[in-house]
């Protein structure tokens, strides 16, 4: 019940006049009618191999103080040394020096706090409100990275809460994010399979399942396109989703093609969205040579 | 030539301007369309609209007589439901291009998305490139010409119409058949291509309906019908009903079909009662004038509301299931009682429109009888998702009810066993639904309330979706609701009882704090004013009566509505049978029934100590059974049993 968007610039930032964050704000603004409840972004900043960027929902007031203290304790337990931290909106954002096991650290953090994202480069910004409202609080515009994803959500089956907003981080796997439009009908079957192998889930949202499913494949040595290919067979339901890693984005579309998806590719960039209206937001007034991915297909682009 | 620049104004303003300009101008140019939705929706003046760029969803939809030229691409639902007119797209079209067209010529110069021409009735859809899967899905007529490849499952479940493919036929859909192309049809195709200046040399293969699937080979044997109480009697083994069921199945080898709703004993509003003892002897004769019953429905977001003299309307029942005379009688009665009538699925007739003071126009997935002109003369619009008697399933209208006249108004071939699709081509989720609702509002200038009819299934989620998608009101239909024809197993066993449905719906609205932002109309086996007041107490803003209205007008509840040989002339399209029905007289009977409902609502409301129906609340109710208490959360107080019977007797 939503709209999705993704963009990857093939060239360096100098050749364009707007940031990746700005492009995604515009694209989501174009399809906000598909999901007025909440908006979210997965953005990639400059990466440092021995550093992790983390974001948590901490709420406000005393609740926030308690949450922050707890997070700091766990980071200390794992020898994650805080380099910088700040409170933005209802987020606690922290950058740490860390060279241990990310999955173990993140599961420990999950048990104590509401993790939004963890990655050497990835940061997920999401909250209740429109693209512009979320930008006002979290400064999405300032992210100039090379690629990112966005999502607008109409909450139907779960509450309007910031935690239920997309994108979803692949819990336990650094730098992997997903946005999804649709419904996975074999959610519980797939989730149990992954849980039996030790993976943890942070929500009951089917989009998180796709993220963990793909991350698991990647950690087994699959390339992203191979993981997307198997996802079309393994996941049952209606879906159009976008996935991003540290240096690539990709899409997969179910065989029924119930959920829309339109893409535009040129030598500078590839942009994918639920509706062409989002793509036109990047190129106002122009007639675009867009294409609709065929049912049951997938594709990836990397930097 | 005039210009409209959509970078300066909204689509809504642009469409208003377009409608005004089109009355005088021949050519209008739309600049900076930027793939925005609903461009040109509802345009009914002959003019040419040149769209300089890409158009979004439903470009040119619900229009009649105009020509649209889109330079680049078009989104989903290109030319939706166009009556007559032309659309030419220079690039690609998204899914369901030409959906439900009733006579348009649509030319897509590039490729087109999946399910092109779904439920189309008449006209031509041309794709110069390749089509995606299921082109011609459930089409009822017209033709699709594909110069490239057909895509998978072309012609899936088509009822009629022709599909011509010049490229590769990737695979055939269910009940579709490949045949040689008749020479005269080739001439007609080439003439169409010439007319639209499409250069093409090559040959075509033709695909049409094989006629093997969508027809019943064996009809049910006609038998003396079992009365409703035999159906609803306790289930003992091998009773009359079970025996009949087994016998009929032994003849036809499939599920049975019947009319009406479930006959099983299920929790219902009769399992709850009023907390306060109502003494029929103390009800004053002028009580109707002492209670405020006027109810406005649908104005919550600024549309012109339905103005009901009491919180009651007629439930949607189709011309098709019912005879034209019956629909007219109900319309007259609704006008006399100053409540709203509903067209149901089968389109709007002049007689019905003329007789009903307030009329809701219903749209189903098959878009049977749906069109812009009747939308404009309706007082409310309704998107049917499902009905309580058979949630999740489409409608069935057996061949002997699909007469020439009926086929014409629905835009389908005469004499087919008509299955209405169970889902909409363009409503596949809450996100698409938002865009569809907006299309209706654009087409009718935001004047009419738009409602959604939901059969009770996954009530909690469905209600939340409906509320969030901005409908003006919701019509919720429980399992005790009736149908003109449905599989008897489904009617008996599938659904959520009306009582559970309204309670779940109210909880859902409370959870998202939408109680005051959308109105609720409850239906599904509500029988009289007593049931109505209970529904109002539980949170409904109004109720709708279907079965009780037709029973008031002479129906004998034999449940054989689907056969088409209704002895009372109600559920038939056979003129000999229909002659037995006297619309003027039955209109008076139905009207008197509605007045008895009015009296009951007033009497009970007054006896409960109120002077307005809006003061009724859950606090006025108790549960008579443990099940009803569990369902409603009302206190279990069985000692109140039977107290309202006296009111029922006194109502006249």
Q: How are the secondary structure elements laid out?
A:
The complex is a heterodimer of chains A (303) and B (652).
Chain A: E1 2-9, H1 20-30, E2 38-44, E3 51-57, H2 61-77, E4 81-88, E5 91-97, H3 102-112, E6 114-119, E7 122-128, H4 131-138, E8 147-153, E9 168-169, E10 177-184, H5 187-196, H6 206-219, H7 224-234, E11 237-244, E12 248-253, E13 262-265, E14 269-273, H8 276-280, E15 298-302
Helix pairs in contact in A: 2-3, 5-6, 6-7
Chain B: E1 2-5, H1 11-22, E2 27-31, E3 48-51, E4 67-70, E5 86-89, E6 102-108, E7 122-127, E8 143-146, E9 162-165, E10 176-179, H2 183-195, E11 205-209, H3 228-232, H4 240-252, E12 257-258, E13 272-274, H5 287-290, E14 295-297, E15 306-308, E16 312-314, H6 324-336, E17 340-342, H7 350-355, E18 358-363, H8 372-376, E19 380-384, E20 396-397, H9 404-410, E21 418-419, H10 430-443, E22 450-455, H11 459-468, E23 473-477, E24 486-487, H12 488-493, H13 498-511, E25 519-523, H14 529-537, E26 542-545, H15 547-552, H16 575-578, H17 583-607, E27 621-623, H18 626-632, H19 645-650
Helix pairs in contact in B: 6-17, 11-13, 14-17
Structure description:
- The complex is a heterodimer of chains A (303) and B (652).
- Chain A contains 8 helices and 15 strands.
- Chain A has 303 residues and is an alpha+beta fold.
- Chain A folds into 2 domains: 2-42 and 146-302, Glutamine Phosphoribosylpyrophosphate, subunit 1, domain 1, CATH 3.60.20.10; 48-120, ACT domain (Alpha-Beta Plaits).
- Chain A has a 6-stranded antiparallel β-sheet with strand order 7-2-8-1-14-13. A 5-stranded antiparallel β-sheet of chain A has the order 9-10-11-12-15. A 4-stranded antiparallel β-sheet of chain A has the order 4-5-3-6, covered by helices on one side.
- In chain A, α2 (61-77) runs antiparallel to α3 (102-112), α5 (187-196) packs across α6 (206-219) and α6 (206-219) crosses α7 (224-234).
- The longest helix of chain A is centred in the N-terminal third of the chain and has 17 residues, at 61-77.
- Chain B folds into 2 domains: 2-209, Pectate Lyase C-like, CATH 2.160.20.60; 255-650, Aldolase class I (TIM Barrel, Alpha-Beta Barrel).
- Helix content of chain B is 27%, strand content 17%.
- Chain B is built from 19 helices and 27 strands.
- In chain B, the strands form 6 sheets. Chain B has an 11-stranded mixed β-sheet with strand order 1-2-3-4-5-6-7-8-9-11-10, covered by helices on one side. An 8-stranded parallel β-sheet of chain B has the order 16-26-25-23-22-19-18-17.
- In chain B, β25 (519-523), α14 and β26 (542-545) form a beta-alpha-beta unit.
- Chain B is globular and about 85 Å long.
- The A-B interface holds A 1-3, 33-35, 37, 154-157, 159-160, 181-183, 238, 257-260, 262, 274-277, 279-281, 284-292, 294-295 and B 7, 31-32, 34-37, 52-54, 56-57, 71-73, 75-76, 91-92, 94-95, 113-114, 132-133, 428-431, 434-435, 438, 461, 464-465, 468-469, 511-512.
């Amino acid at each position: 019940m939503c709209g999705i968007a993704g963009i990857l610039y093939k060239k360096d930032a100098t050749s364009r006049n707007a940031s990746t964050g700005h492009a995604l704000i515009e694209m989501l603004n174009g399809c906000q009618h598909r999901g007025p409840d909440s908006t979210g972004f997965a953005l990639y900043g400059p990466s440092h191999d021995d550093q992790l960027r983390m974001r948590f929902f901490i709420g406000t007031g005393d609740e926030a103080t308690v949450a922050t203290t707890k997070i700091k304790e766990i980071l200390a337990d794992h020898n994650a040394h805080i380099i910088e931290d700040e409170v933005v909106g209802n987020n606690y954002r922290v950058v740490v020096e860390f060279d241990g096991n990310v999955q173990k650290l993140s599961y420990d953090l999950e048990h104590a706090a509401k993790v939004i994202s963890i990655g050497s480069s990835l940061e997920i910004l999401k909250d209740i409100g429109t693209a512009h409202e979320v930008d006002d609080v979290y400064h999405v515009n300032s992210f100039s990275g090379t690629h990112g994803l966005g999502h607008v959500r109409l909450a139907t089956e779960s509450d309007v809460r910031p935690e239920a907003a997309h994108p979803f981080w692949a819990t336990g796997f650094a730098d992997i994010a997903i946005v999804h439009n649709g419904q996975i009908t074999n959610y519980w079957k797939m989730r149990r399979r992954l849980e039996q192998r030790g993976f943890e889930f942070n929500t009951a949202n089917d989009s998180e399942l796709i993220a963990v499913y793909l991350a698991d494949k990647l950690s087994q040595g699959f390339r992203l396109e191979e993981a997307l290919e198997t996802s079309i067979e393994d996941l049952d339901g209606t879906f159009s989703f976008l996935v991003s890693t540290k240096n690539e984005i990709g899409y997969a579309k179910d065989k029924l093609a119930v959920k829309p998806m339109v893409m535009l590719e040129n030598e500078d960039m590839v942009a994918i969205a639920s509706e062409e209206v989002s793509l036109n937001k990047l190129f106002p007034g122009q007639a675009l040579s867009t294409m609709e991915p065929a049912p049951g297909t997938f594709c990836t682009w990397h930097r | 030539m005039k210009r409209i620049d959509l970078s300066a104004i909204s689509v809504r303003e642009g469409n208003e301007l377009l409608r005004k300009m089109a009355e005088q101008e021949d050519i209008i140019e739309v600049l900076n369309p930027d793939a925005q939705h609903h461009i040109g929706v509802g345009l009914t003046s002959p003019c040419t609209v040149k769209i300089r760029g890409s158009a979004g969803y439903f470009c040119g939809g619900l229009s009649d007589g105009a020509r649209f030229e889109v330079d680049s691409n078009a989104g989903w639902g290109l030319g939706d439901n166009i009556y007559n007119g032309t659309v030419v797209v220079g690039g690609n079209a998204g899914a369901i291009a030409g959906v439900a067209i009733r006579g348009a010529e649509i030319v897509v110069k590039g490729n087109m998305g999946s399910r092109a021409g779904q439920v189309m009735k008449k006209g031509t859809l041309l794709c110069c490139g390749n089509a995606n899967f299921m082109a011609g899905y459930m089409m009822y007529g017209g033709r699709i010409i594909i110069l490239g490849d057909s895509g998978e499952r072309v012609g899936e479940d088509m009822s009629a119409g022709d599909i011509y493919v010049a490229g590769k036929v990737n695979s055939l859909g269910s009940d579709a058949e490949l045949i040689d192309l008749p020479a005269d049809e080739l001439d007609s195709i080439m003439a169409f291509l010439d007319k639209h200046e499409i250069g093409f040399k090559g040959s075509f293969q033709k695909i049409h309906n094989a006629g093997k699937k969508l027809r019943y080979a064996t009809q049910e044997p006609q038998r003396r019908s079992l009365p409703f109480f035999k159906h609803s009697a306790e289930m003992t083994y091998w009773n009359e009903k079970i025996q009949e069921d087994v016998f009929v199945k032994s003849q036809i080898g499939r599920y049975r079909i019947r009319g009406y709703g479930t006959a099983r004993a299920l929790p219902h509003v009769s399992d709850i009662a009023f907390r306060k003892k109502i003494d029929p002897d103390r009800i004053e004769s002028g009580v109707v004038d002492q209670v405020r019953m006027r109810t406005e429905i649908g104005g919550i977001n600024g549309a012109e509301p339905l103005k009901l003299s009491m919180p009651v309307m007629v439930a949607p029942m189709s011309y098709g299931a019912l005879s034209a005379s019956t629909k007219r009688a109900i319309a007259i009665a609704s006008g006399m009682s100053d409540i709203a009538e509903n067209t149901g699925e089968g389109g709007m007739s002049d007689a019905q429109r003329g007789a009903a003071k307030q009329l809701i126009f219903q749209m189903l997935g098959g878009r049977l009888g749906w069109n812009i002109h009747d939308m404009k003369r309706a007082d409310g619009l309704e998107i049917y998702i499902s009905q309580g008697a058979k949630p999740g399933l489409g409608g069935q209208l057996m061949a002997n009810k699909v007469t020439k006249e009926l086929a014409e108004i629905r835009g389908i071939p005469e004499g087919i066993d008509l299955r209405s699709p169970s889902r909409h081509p363009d409503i596949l989720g809450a996100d698409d639904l938002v865009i569809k609702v907006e299309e209706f509002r654009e087409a009718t200038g935001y004047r009419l309330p738009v409602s959604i009819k939901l059969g009770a299934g996954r009530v909690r989620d469905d209600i939340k979706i409906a509320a969030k998608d901005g409908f003006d009101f919701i019509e919720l239909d429980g399992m005790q609701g009736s149908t003109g024809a449905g599989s008897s197993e489904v009617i008996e066993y599938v659904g959520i009882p009306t009582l559970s449905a309204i309670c779940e719906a109210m909880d859902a609205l409370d959870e998202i704090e939408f109680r005051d932002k959308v109105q609720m109309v409850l239906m599904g086996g509500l029988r009289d004013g007593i049931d109505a007041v209970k529904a109002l107490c539980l949170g409904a803003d109004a109720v709708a009566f279907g079965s009780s209205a037709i029973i008031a007008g002479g129906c004998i509840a034999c449940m054989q509505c689907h056969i088409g040989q209704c002895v009372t002339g109600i559920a038939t399209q056979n003129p000999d049978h229909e002659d037995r029905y006297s619309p003027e007289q039955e209109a008076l009977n139905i009207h008197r029934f509605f007045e008895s409902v009015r009296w009951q609502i007033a009497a009970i409301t007054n006896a409960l100590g109120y002077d307005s129906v809006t003061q009724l609340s859950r606090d006025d109710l108790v549960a008579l059974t443990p099940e009803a208490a569990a369902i409603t959360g009302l206190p279990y107080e069985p000692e109140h049993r039977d107290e309202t019977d006296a009111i029922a007797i006194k109502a006249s």
